[in-house]
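Sample entry copied in:
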Amino acid sequence: MVIRVVLIIILILAVLYSRSLKNIISFLFLGFVALFLWEFAWWGKIIDILFISSMLLVLILGFIRGFKVNENKPDKD
């Protein structure tokens, strides 16, 4: 019962608020789902490892893209 109420509140917040809040809420929701999968099943551990590795890959590629953008800017002398 409590989990359903929390999920409904999360869904309402995701619909009402901005895109960045939606991303944070969806990331937290996926984290909770991943935690439950890790605890209950062996195949949940495989899904969690794939989820974590994909998030790390996105983070690393974002840093690389950010450094490339900063290198292309001319100096303000």
Summary: The chain has a mean pLDDT of 70. Helices lie at 2-16, 19-40, 42-72. The radius of gyration is 18 Å.
